[in-house]
Amino acid sequence: MTVSATQEKAAAKPSRAKRAKSSHEDPLVVADLQTTIGYKLRRAQLLVFQDFIESFNRLKLRPAEFSVLSLIAAQPGQKQTEIAEKLGIKRANFVALMDGLEARGLAERRKAIGDKRSHSLHLTEEGTTFVRKMTQVWRAHEQRLVERLGGEKERDQLITLLDRILTSDEPG
Predict the structure, then answer these.
(1) Average pLDDT, rounded, for the chain
(2) Which CATH number do you get for residue 145?
Protein backbone atom coordinates (compact mmCIF):
# COMPACT_ATOMS: atom_id res chain seq x y z
CA MET A 1 0.00 0.00 0.00
CA THR A 2 1.42 3.36 -1.05
CA VAL A 3 0.82 6.53 1.01
CA SER A 4 1.11 9.90 -0.69
CA ALA A 5 3.00 12.87 0.89
CA THR A 6 -0.32 14.70 1.34
CA GLN A 7 -1.80 11.76 3.22
CA GLU A 8 1.28 11.56 5.46
CA LYS A 9 1.00 15.28 6.34
CA ALA A 10 -2.71 14.92 7.07
CA ALA A 11 -2.05 11.93 9.32
CA ALA A 12 0.74 13.74 11.16
CA LYS A 13 -1.28 16.93 11.66
CA PRO A 14 -3.84 16.70 14.50
CA SER A 15 -7.38 17.81 13.78
CA ARG A 16 -8.49 21.33 14.75
CA ALA A 17 -10.62 19.93 17.60
CA LYS A 18 -7.69 17.90 18.88
CA ARG A 19 -5.36 20.95 18.74
CA ALA A 20 -7.88 23.13 20.59
CA LYS A 21 -8.32 20.50 23.28
CA SER A 22 -4.59 19.94 23.69
CA SER A 23 -3.82 23.68 23.90
CA HIS A 24 -6.08 23.97 26.97
CA GLU A 25 -4.60 20.93 28.63
CA ASP A 26 -0.94 21.10 27.63
CA PRO A 27 1.01 23.17 30.18
CA LEU A 28 3.65 23.93 27.55
CA VAL A 29 1.19 25.74 25.30
CA VAL A 30 1.53 29.36 26.37
CA ALA A 31 -0.81 32.27 25.94
CA ASP A 32 -0.62 34.57 22.97
CA LEU A 33 0.14 37.84 24.76
CA GLN A 34 -1.35 39.87 21.92
CA THR A 35 -4.79 38.48 22.82
CA THR A 36 -4.35 38.34 26.61
CA ILE A 37 -6.48 40.89 28.48
CA GLY A 38 -4.14 41.30 31.44
CA TYR A 39 -1.13 41.87 29.21
CA LYS A 40 -2.92 44.45 27.08
CA LEU A 41 -4.33 46.25 30.15
CA ARG A 42 -0.88 46.42 31.75
CA ARG A 43 0.75 47.77 28.58
CA ALA A 44 -2.00 50.38 28.24
CA GLN A 45 -1.64 51.30 31.92
CA LEU A 46 2.09 51.84 31.47
CA LEU A 47 1.48 54.09 28.49
CA VAL A 48 -1.20 56.10 30.31
CA PHE A 49 0.95 56.44 33.44
CA GLN A 50 3.97 57.54 31.41
CA ASP A 51 1.93 60.30 29.79
CA PHE A 52 0.53 61.23 33.22
CA ILE A 53 3.99 61.43 34.78
CA GLU A 54 5.31 63.56 31.93
CA SER A 55 2.23 65.80 32.03
CA PHE A 56 2.23 66.34 35.78
CA ASN A 57 6.01 66.49 36.27
CA ARG A 58 6.09 70.28 36.43
CA LEU A 59 3.42 70.20 39.17
CA LYS A 60 5.35 67.47 41.01
CA LEU A 61 2.18 65.43 41.29
CA ARG A 62 1.88 61.64 41.41
CA PRO A 63 -1.23 59.67 40.37
CA ALA A 64 -2.27 58.85 43.96
CA GLU A 65 -2.00 62.52 44.98
CA PHE A 66 -4.03 63.52 41.93
CA SER A 67 -6.76 61.06 42.93
CA VAL A 68 -6.88 62.25 46.54
CA LEU A 69 -7.02 65.93 45.56
CA SER A 70 -9.72 65.17 43.00
CA LEU A 71 -11.89 63.41 45.58
CA ILE A 72 -11.40 66.14 48.18
CA ALA A 73 -12.25 68.83 45.63
CA ALA A 74 -15.35 66.96 44.47
CA GLN A 75 -16.67 66.43 47.99
CA PRO A 76 -14.91 68.40 50.75
CA GLY A 77 -15.22 67.02 54.26
CA GLN A 78 -14.95 63.31 53.47
CA LYS A 79 -13.21 61.27 56.11
CA GLN A 80 -9.71 59.96 55.51
CA THR A 81 -10.95 56.39 55.77
CA GLU A 82 -13.62 56.98 53.10
CA ILE A 83 -11.16 58.34 50.55
CA ALA A 84 -8.55 55.70 51.33
CA GLU A 85 -11.17 52.98 50.85
CA LYS A 86 -12.42 54.43 47.55
CA LEU A 87 -8.88 54.45 46.21
CA GLY A 88 -7.82 51.13 47.69
CA ILE A 89 -4.97 52.71 49.65
CA LYS A 90 -3.85 51.17 52.94
CA ARG A 91 -4.33 53.34 56.01
CA ALA A 92 -0.61 53.77 56.75
CA ASN A 93 0.14 54.69 53.13
CA PHE A 94 -2.76 57.13 53.05
CA VAL A 95 -1.56 58.89 56.21
CA ALA A 96 1.87 59.39 54.61
CA LEU A 97 0.23 60.64 51.40
CA MET A 98 -1.85 63.17 53.34
CA ASP A 99 1.21 64.25 55.33
CA GLY A 100 2.84 65.15 52.01
CA LEU A 101 -0.19 67.07 50.75
CA GLU A 102 -0.40 68.97 54.04
CA ALA A 103 3.34 69.75 53.97
CA ARG A 104 2.84 71.26 50.49
CA GLY A 105 -0.05 73.36 51.83
CA LEU A 106 -2.59 71.78 49.45
CA ALA A 107 -4.91 69.97 51.85
CA GLU A 108 -5.68 69.83 55.53
CA ARG A 109 -7.21 67.49 58.07
CA ARG A 110 -9.87 68.77 60.39
CA LYS A 111 -11.54 66.99 63.26
CA ALA A 112 -14.73 65.47 61.95
CA ILE A 113 -17.92 66.94 63.36
CA GLY A 114 -19.46 64.46 65.77
CA ASP A 115 -16.44 62.15 65.79
CA LYS A 116 -13.28 63.64 67.25
CA ARG A 117 -11.32 60.46 66.46
CA SER A 118 -11.60 60.84 62.70
CA HIS A 119 -10.54 63.59 60.33
CA SER A 120 -12.35 65.23 57.46
CA LEU A 121 -10.29 66.39 54.51
CA HIS A 122 -10.40 69.79 52.86
CA LEU A 123 -8.43 71.74 50.29
CA THR A 124 -6.60 74.81 51.50
CA GLU A 125 -6.88 78.06 49.56
CA GLU A 126 -3.57 77.21 47.90
CA GLY A 127 -4.92 73.71 47.26
CA THR A 128 -7.95 75.10 45.46
CA THR A 129 -5.69 77.15 43.17
CA PHE A 130 -3.48 74.10 42.61
CA VAL A 131 -6.47 71.90 41.71
CA ARG A 132 -7.50 74.42 39.06
CA LYS A 133 -4.03 74.13 37.45
CA MET A 134 -4.07 70.36 37.93
CA THR A 135 -7.42 70.13 36.16
CA GLN A 136 -6.11 71.99 33.10
CA VAL A 137 -3.16 69.60 32.83
CA TRP A 138 -5.47 66.61 33.35
CA ARG A 139 -7.83 67.76 30.57
CA ALA A 140 -4.95 67.92 28.08
CA HIS A 141 -3.68 64.50 29.22
CA GLU A 142 -7.15 62.99 28.96
CA GLN A 143 -7.72 64.53 25.52
CA ARG A 144 -4.54 62.91 24.19
CA LEU A 145 -5.83 59.54 25.35
CA VAL A 146 -9.30 60.09 23.88
CA GLU A 147 -7.72 61.02 20.53
CA ARG A 148 -5.58 57.90 20.64
CA LEU A 149 -8.70 55.80 21.20
CA GLY A 150 -10.43 57.41 18.23
CA GLY A 151 -12.85 59.73 20.01
CA GLU A 152 -15.29 60.06 22.88
CA LYS A 153 -17.52 57.22 21.71
CA GLU A 154 -14.60 54.79 21.87
CA ARG A 155 -13.57 56.19 25.27
CA ASP A 156 -17.09 55.61 26.56
CA GLN A 157 -17.04 52.06 25.18
CA LEU A 158 -13.70 51.36 26.87
CA ILE A 159 -14.97 52.74 30.19
CA THR A 160 -18.08 50.54 29.91
CA LEU A 161 -15.98 47.44 29.24
CA LEU A 162 -13.60 48.21 32.11
CA ASP A 163 -16.58 48.78 34.41
CA ARG A 164 -17.81 45.29 33.53
CA ILE A 165 -14.51 43.85 34.71
CA LEU A 166 -14.47 46.00 37.84
CA THR A 167 -18.05 45.36 38.92
CA SER A 168 -18.63 41.76 38.00
CA ASP A 169 -18.96 39.39 40.95
CA GLU A 170 -18.17 36.29 38.95
CA PRO A 171 -16.10 35.75 35.83
CA GLY A 172 -18.08 35.20 32.66
Answers:
(1) 86
(2) 1.10.10.10
In a domain, 77, yes or no: yes
Domain range for 148 is 39-50+62-167
What angle, 0 to 180 degrees and rounded to 10, lies between the N-to-C axes of helices 125-149 and 37-56?
130
Residue 10 lies in a domain: no
For residue range 148-171, list pLDDT tens digits in order: 999 999 999 999 999 999 887 655
% of the chain with per-residue pLDDT over 90: 68
Give the separation between CA 52 and CA 162, rounded to whole angstroms. 19
Q: Give me the number of domains the chain comprises.
A: 1
Local structure of residue 13 (DSSP, 8 states):
S
The answer to whether 74 and 122 have CB atoms below 8 angstroms apart is no
Question: Residue 109: exposed, middle, or buried by beta-carbon count in 10 A (0-12, 13-18, 19+)?
Answer: middle
Residue 169 Cα distances to 35, 116, 154, angstroms? 23, 36, 25
* Single-letter amino acid, residue 63: P
The model carries a pTM of: 0.75
**What Å distances lie between residue 18 and 35, 38, 70, 79, CA to CA?**
21, 27, 53, 57
Q: Is residue 109 part of a domain?
A: yes
